[in-house]
Design a protein that fits this description.
The protein is an alpha+beta fold. The chain has 3 domains: 277 residues, no CATH class; 116 residues, 2-Layer Sandwich (Phosphorylase Kinase, domain 1), CATH 3.30.200; 175 residues, Transferase(Phosphotransferase) domain 1 (Transferase(Phosphotransferase), domain 1, Orthogonal Bundle). 40% of the residues lie in helices and 15% in strands. It is built from 18 helices and 18 strands. Strands 1, 2, 3, 4, 5, 6 and 7 form a 7-stranded mixed sheet that branches. The chain has a 6-stranded antiparallel β-barrel with strand order 8-9-10-11-13-12. Helix 5 links the parallel strand 3 and strand 4. Helix 3 packs across helix 8 and helix 12 runs antiparallel to helix 14. The longest helix has 27 residues.
Length: 678
């Protein structure tokens, strides 16, 4: 205790240890070893695949000469970052029901006991926090990086100073310290506003010669003779938006160090990293199978069976097998004028539909049709793949999402009371009734007939996809762009009220429908919608949200962000082809920094520019988009833009009719629908 009271000047200690530190950092043959092996970090990455780290505060960008307020904001961002890691690890690996037995604290004012951020055991509270309560310490400095990717000597020195205090406190503590396992090891993180690293100090602190008078020389001697010091390389943790790159090396080092610190206090987790990481192989296998059969359907080639062979006969057999596999998964093709009979899953009766035309291509079986019961109203018919005799995971996943899962999503919308003219309406779903006798043994079984067991989904309305609209007629006008934005926001609001996110917005997923005099827009293809946290959205380098590209998951404002990219395309914005997701993320980062979306949309409408600014403020946060306020603003902007086009009619936003924009005659001031807020 007396030694700890004398060991108080961090700068003095760093000065005495400087020669030793420079020798270790500058000597490639005797430099500090890494605290973690690359295989350990890979295992952690696989184990936490799909786990969401939800940081609330962005990291400000720290430059020399900035005010103390920025430094305080950075400390708060580091506190939030550390709390996010600890909370997520605790809930994922230890207990999702019990409260986390730690809290995070940092410097509070000039008289603060701490000069960094700390993860503290529950025995420490507020101003009573002392070193024996500290589980992990974070050194926060303006710049930590030095030459060759290592931390500068002063940062390592400060980290060692705090690490020695942590080890000493566990030895002389009168009460039981927070750390109960591997008490001879301390982890100190060091970060700036961009990068981070880990220092691990391990050693028998009882061998420290506390009776000697030269305090800092003694501490340096102990480090040289009795301590095992490991220092990681300095890696980027936060991007320029202030968001953590959770799956990258920099963040993974900090996460793994924090995991070991929690283990020191609470023991081994209930679920080991090896157990969680083992699931990665099965997920990868399922994805490979899905891609294999998508490739067979698209290209007619099965690369997984391609071998280097010299025998012509063997090559012919391989080609025949591949063709048989293709035929096995080939979707049913229907000719215009033919009749499709469906065993409706809801009504348990036969429904007839007459095919009018094909709406898909060689990859998708989608048709326009009319019901034999309801006359000339056009409907959309999605036809699934033929059920194979192989494992269910080998079936065509594209048509499965398009038919079976979209049926589930639309049924869920109906059950939760979601209804909007801007969403597809489920008309019928079930299996095809084929001609002749059926020898299936159960209602869910199938016979040998090639049509038996094929699932079909029928929806309304029918329209023209926006990619085809743009190809035929050019970019949308200002009025049509506002109308499209309004209609899609209304669709997202309706679905969001039931906890459903689309997750796959693109020009191919939006149709323009001819209404009573005007067009309206419907968001279709809800097969990849997200209902639960475990659901994975489709990934589009052009239109997916930033968070979806980074984490493979949707944040609350993901669809609203994708809408910005869609509008940008519809008014003539240039969207390159991306070779990788990293290229797509870099393009987004540059475009938002240069306000590319705001500038182009601002030429169409100031409200669209304001909407893009609003979305920019939400990126990287857990906050949802406020659809209602933007529906009202866009309605007013639409009214202003449409006055000249409608010649005496204005537009009213009807709150009680699914967010429908309706024309109102100036002379009467009355609407054909329910009155609402203008």
């Amino acid at each position: 205790k007396d030694f700890a009271k004398r060991f108080v000047d961090c700068d003095e200690f760093t000065s005495h240890a400087q020669e030793w530190l420079l020798g270790k950092l500058g000597n490639p043959e005797d430099q500090f070893k890494e605290p973690f092996q690359l295989d350990e970090l890979k295992q952690l990455d696989y184990a936490l695949e799909g786990v969401i780290f939800q940081q609330l505060l962005r990291m400000p960008y720290w430059q020399h000469g900035l005010s103390g307020n920025i430094a305080a904001e950075i400390n708060l961002a580091v506190e939030d970052f550390l709390h996010t890691i600890a909370q997520t690890l605790w809930e994922t690996l230890w207990s999702s029901e019990d409260r986390m037995p730690f809290f995070v604290t940092g410097p509070r004012g000039k008289r603060s006991y701490l000069d960094g951020v700390a993860l503290v055991g529950k025995s420490g509270r507020g101003m009573n926090t002392v070193w024996e309560h500290i589980v992990e310490f974070v050194e926060v400095q303006p710049e930590i990086g030095g030459d060759a990717g290592f931390a500068v000597s002063s940062i390592v020195g400060r980290s060692l100073f705090h690490g020695i205090h942590m080890l000493m406190s566990r030895l002389y503590s009168e009460k039981k310290p927070s750390v109960r396992k591997h008490t001879d090891t301390a982890y100190v993180l060091f970060v700036d506003s961009k990068c981070g690293g880990v220092m691990r100090l391990r050693g028998d602190i009882s061998k420290l010669d506390t009776k000697a008078g030269l305090t800092y020389e003694v501490a340096t001697d102990w480090l040289e003779q009795h301590a095992d010091v490991a220092v990681s390389s300095v890696e980027q943790v936060w991007n320029r938006f202030g968001n953590a790159n959770w799956g990258d090396l920099g963040a993974l080092q900090l996460i793994l160090a924090t995991l070991h610190c929690i283990e020191q206090c609470r023991g081994s987790p209930k679920r080991s990293l090896a157990e969680l990481a083992s699931d990665h192989g099965s997920r990868l296998h399922r994805r490979k199978i899905e891609r294999r059969f998508l490739e067979i359907q698209e290209n007619g080639i099965d690369h997984s069976y391609r071998q280097e062979v010299t025998s012509h006969e063997i090559q012919e057999i391989e080609e025949i097998e591949a063709q048989e596999i293709i035929r096995e998964f080939e979707a049913l093709k229907l000719e215009p004028g033919s009749t499709l009979w469906l065993e409706d899953a809801q009504w348990q009766r036969g429904c007839g539909f007459r095919i009018v035309s094909s709406l898909g291509d060689e990859k998708y079986s989608m048709y326009s049709a009319t019901s034999l019961d309801e006359g000339d109203k056009l409907l959309s018919v999605y036809v699934g793949a033929h059920p194979s005799q192989l494992e269910p995971s080998w079936e065509d996943m594209t048509t499965w999402y398009q038919v079976q899962r979209q049926t589930r999503i639309l049924n869920t919308m109906s059950q939760r009371g979601v209804s909007s003219r801007y969403l597809p309406q489920l008309v019928s779903s079930g299996r095809i009734l084929h001609s002749g006798s059926c020898s299936k043994q159960s209602p869910g079984g199938r016979c040998d007939h090639p049509w038996c067991g094929i699932s079909v989904l029928v929806t309304s309305p029918v329209g023209e996809p926006l990619d085809i609209v743009v190809a035929k007629h050019g970019w949308l006008s200002a009025v049509e762009t506002l109308r499209c934005c309004h209609d899609l926001l209304s669709a997202l609001r309706s679905a969001g009220s039931a906890g459903i996110q689309h997750g796959d917005i693109s020009p191919q997923r939006v149709i323009r429908v001819k209404g009573d005099g005007d067009y309206f827009y419907v968001l279709i293809d809800w097969g990849r919608a997200v209902l639960e946290d475990r659901d994975s959205p489709a990934i589009s380098p052009r239109y997916s949200s930033t968070y979806a590209l980074q984490e493979g998951k949707l944040c609350p404002a993901a669809d609203a962000e994708s809408l910005v990219y869609l509008l940008y395309f519809l008014v003539g914005g240039s969207m390159p082809e991306f070779e990788s997701l990293e290229a797509a993320l870099q393009w987004r980062e540059r475009a938002w920094a240069l306000r590319t979306f705001q500038l182009l949309l601002g030429e169409i409408s100031t409200v669209l520019k304001a909407y893009a600014d609003y979305i920019d403020s939400l990126i990287g946060t857990p906050y949802p988009a406020d659809y209602d306020i933007w529906l009202r603003r866009i309605s007013r902007a639409f009214q202003s833009s449409s006055d000249q086009v409608n010649h005496g009619k204005r537009i009213q936003y009807i709150e009680g009719s699914g967010g429908v924009i309706k024309p109102v005659d100036y002379n009467t001031g009355e609407s054909s629908g329910t009155s609402g807020t203008s």
